[in-house]
Every structure is written in C-alpha cells, then in structure tokens.
Amino acid sequence: MKRIAFLAALLLVTIGSFAQDGKSIYQKYSDAENVSAVYISPAMFRLIGKLPEITADTEDGKVDLTPVISTLTGMYVIDSHNQSINSALASEVKKFITSGKYELLMEAKDNGQTMRMYTLGDEKIVNSFVMLALENDETTFICIDGKMNRKDLEKVLAEQMK
After folding, report:
1. What are the helix and strand counts (H, E) for the chain?
2. What distances in angstroms separate CA 49 from CA 33, 43, 75, 141, 145, one per listed residue?
C-alpha cells in the first residue's frame, strides 16, 4: 500500500513539473539573444490601480482601462526575433493554451502572419488572457493574469480593434 501511495505521489509531482504557465515560458526565453522581454508584477498593477483614471485613445474617443488594470496580477511579454527559438516558443505556447483549456477569442491571418487571442475563465471572469502572434521572423507571446471582468475586457478589446 505504501508503494502505491508513493508512486501516486511521484506521478502527481512529475505531472506538475510539466505544467506550463506564462511565468515559466517567460523565464525560459526572456534571457535569450534577440528576445525582448517584459514582466509586470502584481505590485506594479496595485500601484497603477491606485491612479485615478487610465485611458487609451481610440478613433471614437477614449476608453477607460482602470477597471481592467486594477484586477491584474501579472503580465509576461516575449517578443522574439531569434529564428532558432521561434518555433519552440510557439510550440510551448500552443501546449500551454491546450493544457489550460483556453478558449479562442479571436484569430486574424494576413500574408502568412497569424495572431490569436485566447481567454481562460467563465462567463463573468477572465482569469488569463493569452495572445500569440506569428510573423515571418518574429514570434510574440503575451500572457496577462488576473480576475478581469469579462465585459470590461471585451469592451477594451473591442475599442482597440476598431
């Protein structure tokens, strides 16, 4: 019986070590040559969330970003021009999206370039937002974690897509 319990515990630890998240992908590629990387911590989002109003200019005026920003807990950005890691990065992001049961929010294709946005959450709350953009010589990965109100996030994205 002890042997079975030990094997089960070992299996759970092994499975957990293969799990990917935005942070682990960021850590793996952020120091590579020809890779730009940005990490924004929960502390920074708390600080930004205390500002009165944060807006983005759109063609139709301004959209208030404060309701979304104040709910964020982390942001990871990798922009790679390193041909030797672009396909590996894209492959890891795709595994991450599949394993996390992300839902495709949007896909855009143009002249061999592809951009996909995914969300993870339920009808009211988005726990994670992922964007993967693939171009000829560039791969971009963005992962934003938090507890974002889906309606607020969709409003911001809709305004920015106009």
Report:
1. 6, 8
2. 33, 10, 14, 24, 15
pTM: 0.78
For the chain, which residues make up each domain, given as ranges? 20-161
Using an 8 Å Cβ cutoff, are 8 and 16 in contact?
no
Nearest residue to 89 (alpha-carbon basis) of 157, 161, 150, 30: 30
pLDDT per residue as tens digits for the range 107-133? 999 998 999 999 999 989 999 999 999
Dihedral of CA atoms 137, 95, 132, 79 in degrees, nearest 10, equals -50
Q: Rounded CA gap, 160 and 111, in Å? A: 22
Q: Are 62 and 14 in contact (CB under 8 A)?
A: no
Question: What are the tokens at 118?
Answer: 């995914």
Report the percentage of the chain scoring pLDDT > 90. 51
- Containing 147, the helix (H) or strand (E) segment is strand 139-149
Could you read off the pLDDT of 21-33 as tens digits, one per residue? 889 999 999 999 9
